[in-house]
Amino acid sequence: MYGNTKTKLISEDTPLNPITPYGASKLAGEKYCQVYHSSYDLSTVSLRYLNVYGERQRSNPYSGVIAIFARRLLEGKPPVIYGDGNQTRDFIHVSDVAKANLLALTTERGVGESFNIGTGQATSIKQLHGILVNTTGKNVKPVFRKQRPGDIRHSCANIDRARADLNFRPKVSLRDGLRLLLKFSRSFRDES
Predict the structure, then answer these.
(1) Under CATH, to which class is 9-191 assigned?
(2) For 74-99, how does the pLDDT look when each residue is reduced to its tens digit (9 = 90+)?
(3) What's the pLDDT score for residue 192?
(4) Which whole number is the average pLDDT over 148-164?
(5) What residue spans define the domains of the chain?
(6) What is the pTM of this model?
(7) Which residues are catalytic?
(8) Are the C-beta atoms of residues 150 and 90 closer than 8 Å to each other?
């Protein structure tokens, strides 16, 4: 929803400028929630998830980079990095996203508002590759390709508002979350 921003840390007040149809559809959904809240007093809360990952996430062209990298590394294939790999993302484990949803459902604070749900920690795609290599023990070098249209350079959430109004505190570190994902992926592969 934010598109390419001038700052690396994105707050809810950062101008919304989606650069893909996917981003525009997320913004449209949020606007519908705001209109229903103001017009009909319907209690709504919009959560702006950053890069969600976790166990059971499928690896396909539409899934996140973590699932794709993990599958390729476990198969001994090189992950593909589009661009120079210095672009950053805020990766959040699915269990923390589930907690954010429950908090939004059970509090009166923030009704009609929007909240960033991330960790506030930026990780470059190169760093992600390094962590996955260390965690899997598979030293497979990435392949670099041309940056794709619509890829943003930096995406990291300022989660101060979610902390204050929802009492949201992400618990799962990227390293721990990747260990959980890889453990599940290995056991799933062994069963199939």
Answers:
(1) alpha beta
(2) 999 999 999 999 999 999 999 999 99
(3) 46
(4) 94
(5) 9-191
(6) 0.92
(7) 22
(8) no
